[in-house]
Amino acid sequence: MRLPTVARGESFADRAFFAFIRLVSGHPAPDVLRLLRFRPERFGKPFAAHVQEVLRGPSSWTVGEREAIAAFVSSRNRCLF
Known about the structure:
This protein is mainly alpha-helical. It has helices spanning 4-8, 12-25, 31-37, 40-56, 63-76.
């Protein structure tokens, strides 16, 4: 279930951006992109910063290992990214 505002885009710019992605790729914008564009100052930017820290910050695991874990978890959750 998605919030309608996240699914369609909150602003005209978001809706135009999502339409452009669909036009160019033939597919709807990925859900993660829609989520990051949702209220960027309150949610999108802090969430993106957190994800970057988790995937790219200091760790005993390599970036590739962390990406592989994220891809595996996403596949188990039937998530397309």
